[in-house]
Amino acid sequence: MPSFSLSAPGPSQNPVAVQQLPGGNYGMTQQPTYNPMQAKAPAPLGPGLYPSGPYQPTLPVSSYQHAPPVSSYQPAPPGQPLMTRPLLGGPPSNTPPQSASPGPRLPPPQATPPPPAVSSSNYYSNPQQPQHMPPAWQYNNAPPPMGSPSSMGTPPRGAMANHVNPAASSTAPLLPPSSAAYSSAPAAHVSHSGAQPPGPGSPPTSLHGYIQPGTAPPPMNPMVPNTYQPSRASYGPPPTGPPPTMKPTAPPTGPPMANVKPPPPRTDAQCGGAVNNTLPPTEPDCQDGDIECPGTMAGNGPQASNSHNHVDNKMAGMPQHGPPGRHLGHYPSLPPGYQNSPAPHNAPPPMHPALLAATQPYTQAHQPYQQPPGGPGPAQLSPSMAAMSLQSNTPESLRVVNLLQERNLLPPSPTPPPTPCLPQDLQKINCNPEVFRSTLTSIPQTQSLLNKAKMPLGLMLHPFKDLSQLPVVTSSTIVRCRSCRTYINPFVSFLDQRRWKCNLCHRVNDVPEEFMYNPVSRSYGEPHKRPEVQNATIEFIAPSEYMLRPPQPAAYLFVLDVSHNAVETGYLNVFCQSMLENINALPGDSRTKVGFITFDSTIHFYNLQEGLSQPQMLIVSDIEDIFLPTPDSLLVNLNECKELVQDLLKSLPTLFQKTMETQSALGSALQAAFKLLSPTGGRMTIFQTQLPNLGVGALQSREDPNQRASAKDIQHLSPATDFYKKLALDCSGQQVSVDLFLLSSQYCDLASLGCISRYSAGTVYYYPSYHHQRNPAQVECFQKDLKRYLTRKIGFEAVMRIRCTKGLSIHTFHGNFFVRSTDLLSLPNVNPDAGFAVQMSIEENLDDLQVVSFQAALLYTSSKGERRIRVHTLCLPVVNSLSDIFAGADVQAISGLLACMGRYCTIKHNLATFQTRGKTNNF
Amino acid sequence: MAFTFAAFCYMLALLLTAALIFFAIWHLVLPEYLIHFFFCVMFFCAAEWLTLSLNLPLFAYHVWRYMSRPVMSSPGLYDPTTIMNADILAFCQKEGWCKLAFYLLSFFYYLYGYRNSFNFVVK
């Protein structure tokens, strides 16, 4: 799991970036990668409707693992921008930067795993990027060098990190000191990019990508040229230069050249090719080509989308997928076999034969590179480039990807999803793909056609994603279809002034009197101008019919492991610190409640009742039959008792410093917490650092270390006990959601523990080998996650229903929730990072339909105690030919859904079953 | 006229199968398994080997099915968290229909067996 962190580390800011993840996210628990920054303030960047920067891709549990780059993180991200800029200032001049940050380019060649580190850095860096857009960009070039400094120390771990956007990494704060290991990775970038303004290459691109979505792509081009050339010049030098600076890293190891060379050619060539393809008009210019490659994707994407031309989009989009990651690590890591590619500089030919066929692109590509002259430069650049171009030109099936070697497979920049082929007016108001998207943007008419296409049909959605422009409607009557209860939406048809036809069940309904009046324009008789009919995403303030009980207050209960092992990891300090900092930012109102429980072999409650001079600790040692010592004063009003809470948080880390208790009675603590929260509902946050081994819910180590390497199939993916599942279902029934932070260094049976979050719509955050001193990268990661976690929006006692046009039906749900009926998901809590996936099947032929619609309605209680309904409606065309289906396939969503399906099948049967089913497409 | 044990078994099976038909529809898993097991034992005691052999495959299936149920601490076969998945739901429904057909057929078979063993004795 760690190896592929699905989520793009990328800063949430890019709306697009997020997308990539969706798939991944769903699969597991969602995790937010977010930038702290964003969390609060949505980035203005994105012009789009939903610029919401904040959005985070949810990561699978593992995602965090990248941690490795130990030291690297520490450098505060904030500083970075400054750092980088100056360096960059002399964009072209790689050398100067190098000196500053030794690590630069070549080091990467090391072939070692270092890349991961990079990712980590990216992570952080990203957040900032948005702000400094312009600079960032430029930097990109420079940034690469930055990365270099990494220290070897952080080694392998990093592996996880990969996905990262190279770009990010480059920019990244990496700050000098840190991970040498990374350096290699960064170096890689650098080499091409760094040397190059290349920045253009990967790094810049990524930035680019981000920016673009929102802003205008055009700027890009101009930029590029400038940077580019300089870069070239720089090119030559960098390679040589770096070694000197690099001292720490072995990276420069002789190989750099060798390694580098082969790849470069490819990239270049391909790039050129790619460019050409996508942008026919573009000139052979090398500059354009190089720069564009990365950029193009982003740039084109949008355009394509507008144009409706699916094919084009894909072209642009598809390639991005693969390549992005590669740049980084990849060439260094390439096994000898791959590297063979003969030609050093020009050697485009080494590419696949297929490419050759591609023809033009190639030739053009060549030219550009050659021009660059500068000897070594091109070669270095090329690796990244090559990766990019390859994809675009070569049929996927022809490209060999060694997943063990190439860890960075995600594109550096977000890929725009294909745009459904809808009439312009519908397209304009269709739901944002960040929120709601389908794997096939053209729905096949029949199930048999879908089977022929051999692609999964499903939806990916982030129903609670942060949105910057969300129309909110307060109205006494919410207009819904009388038979299927669909909310009125932009895709219904008005037969006349007083009647509308439901687009899901096709029933004709009356337009109620109130709906005839349009509050926006203050006019009467224009029901089709109402906001409900103008926006695919809309929020209603729900009247009392939508409440089973008065809206609950926000309630947060923290359950902390304070056994010896937990104290040893030092997480308590981080947690308390983070809580103290964010205690005022917890979403809520004057009714917000908060409580704390700690546990080792006994359960400790904290009496925080108003009027006490200091928090009172109550210890219950009867863990077999847990009870609440003082039911009223354990969960207290945050505003009234803030001082006590702060006192507690300040003293907590020291309280258990000397503990020698090694056992963990998690099950009992959960039961106690459940009892405490069940009257109100709310969010329970568990911090656990070891295998629970006492009382109810005790688990045993199921894993035989000797089997790890040899086992053909991973064992023990399903829970060992149903204790956690049953408890989760109880929690779900009482509107309690359980989030699990697992910070452990040994086996702790996540398969069993995870159930507690899985079925209560919680989230699992996993930090393997967390330690406050030995693993600073994880600490950094933990801090950021925690900050986002504490301050992001939250919805309580939620349910979500997904409806679709008659003839389609929901087949399987993926995500964290409990399915209450065939289309109703019970979500005790919902957060902006939560993602869900559903598989659809076509039960009746859709011959007579032009379009089908999907509607997801999320009913929740906001942290302010308001009952609200958020409705997303997605409209897609129906097609009857295979080519149209393929043209409308959304590769990112498909891979996301496949990941979910793979997880489901692997747990239910085993991985081999999924693989064989995948071959026959018999899911 | 003698009312043999075999005839009694068939009569009992006849009644119980009627109940099973409903259980198969309503998915009352444990009662269904227990009743089926019960009259398998009865046929064994009555030495009705043919009838027993017809029922043994289903009995074996029941045992297997229960052994391979999801991890659960309470009795039961269906897991509330997965039963709503279309593939599992479809499988369980198909299973229900198949058993319904089997019980219907066996109902008439028992009717015949009952009459047969009864007549046999009478002669």
UniProtKB/TrEMBL annotation, chain A:
Domain Sec23/Sec24 trunk: 551-790
Residue ranges of every copy of the Zinc finger Sec23/Sec24-type domain listed in the record: 478-514
An example Gene Ontology molecular-function term: zinc ion binding
Biased composition (Polar residues): 1-17, 27-36, 118-131
Membrane topology according to the record: Peripheral membrane protein
Signal peptide: none
Compositionally biased intervals (Low complexity): 38-56, 166-196
Residues covered by region (Disordered): 1-354
Keywords (A to Z) from UniProt: Cytoplasm, Cytoplasmic vesicle, Endoplasmic reticulum, ER-Golgi transport, Membrane, Metal-binding, Protein transport, Transport, Zinc
Domain Sec23/Sec24 beta-sandwich: 795-879
Pfam families per the UniProt record, alphabetical: Sec23_BS, Sec23_trunk, zf-Sec23_Sec24
GO CC list: COPII vesicle coat; cytosol; endoplasmic reticulum exit site; endoplasmic reticulum membrane
Residue spans of biased composition, Pro residues class: 104-117, 236-266
One GO biological process term: COPII-coated vesicle cargo loading
Location in the cell: Cytoplasm, Cytosol; Cytoplasmic vesicle membrane; Endoplasmic reticulum membrane
InterPro entries: Beta-sandwich_Sec23_24, Sec23/24_trunk_dom, SEC23_SEC24_subfamily, Sec24-like_trunk_dom, vWFA_dom_sf, Znf_Sec23_Sec24, Znf_Sec23_Sec24_sf
Family per similarity comment: Belongs to the SEC23/SEC24 family. SEC24 subfamily.
Protein name, per record: Protein transport protein Sec24A-like
Species whose genome carries this gene: Notothenia coriiceps (black rockcod)
Automatic annotation (TrEMBL), chain B:
Record has Nucleotide-binding as a keyword: no
Record localization: Membrane
Membrane topology per record: Multi-pass membrane protein
GO BP of this protein: vesicle-mediated transport
Membrane-spanning residues: 7-29, 35-64
Keywords: Membrane, Transmembrane, Transmembrane helix
GO-annotated cellular components: membrane
UniProt-listed InterPro entries: Cornichon (IPR003377)
Family: Belongs to the cornichon family.
PANTHER family: CORNICHON-RELATED
UniProt-recorded name of the protein: Protein cornichon homolog 1
Species for this entry: Notothenia coriiceps
Gene name, Swiss-Prot/TrEMBL: cnih1
